Amino acid sequence: MTESSEVVQKIAEMTENLEPMPPIAAKVMEIVGDPDTSCEMLAAVIARDPVIASKVLSLSNTPYYRRVESITSLNMAVMILGFGTIQSLVLTISVGILFGRSRRAEIISRIWEHSVATALISEILGKRLSLPNQERYYIAGLLHDVGKLVFCKSFPDRYREVLRKSHQEGIAGFEAERGEFGFDHTQVGKAVLEKWYLPEDYHGPAANHHDLANLEATEIISPLVHVADCIAHDIVGHDDETTRSPDPAARQRLGLEEVDITDITAENREVVLGNLHLMVCS
Length: 282
Hints:
Layout lengths: L4 H11 L7 H10 L6 H9 L2 H11 L13 H8 L1 H18 L4 H24 L5 H10 L2 H9 L1 H14 L3 H9 L3 H11 L7 H6 L12 H15 L12 H6 L4 H24 L1
């Protein structure tokens, strides 16, 4: 979507006072890509924040991540789960904490549950399609609706009205957002990820998961997150959200048939729901 200078200015004002990416998460994302980083170095960075460190250990022992033995230290978690998974956990915890402090906690909670579910399904799709760096898809799914979180935190009452209108009138949430604000969460989300200096890989899914028309022919990550987003709505679903089928072009880009979407949803419904509460509330 082409943005007018007025829209760009409004989004800039809206995100001006947004808290930065939590320092531990930013540092973890920085050093994970450094080939000289050791398990001990990564564990030491995480240990600087006792809250995040304890939550990483807790999540490492949930059924979704735990391998065989109980994980009892950060060093052990890093060695067993690997850098990519630890990065995903730290980002999940950090962003959850960042947006968890809100007077509209119930709306934030619903959006965050959907975001984590989309992250899990994005990773599952990455594995099913044998794509490399599957944690990349987890993070893209996790952050795809970060613009909604910013809307909710900045304008809680107006955003509640947006959700009500979307549900009662049967229109897409992003269309209701445009009607209320003049822009939508995909534009805000892209601006937030740019402000946080996150890799461009994550900007595209945040900006394009509702509009795939102008993607490059080889891009996979935005169509994958779009499909995961639809499956997450089906699995988690809330009364103020509309379940929709994936765009056929996105599905075909991934080499998936309608029956594959049905199978993936059925096969992973219990996995996602069984781990979602632990991951959101740990």
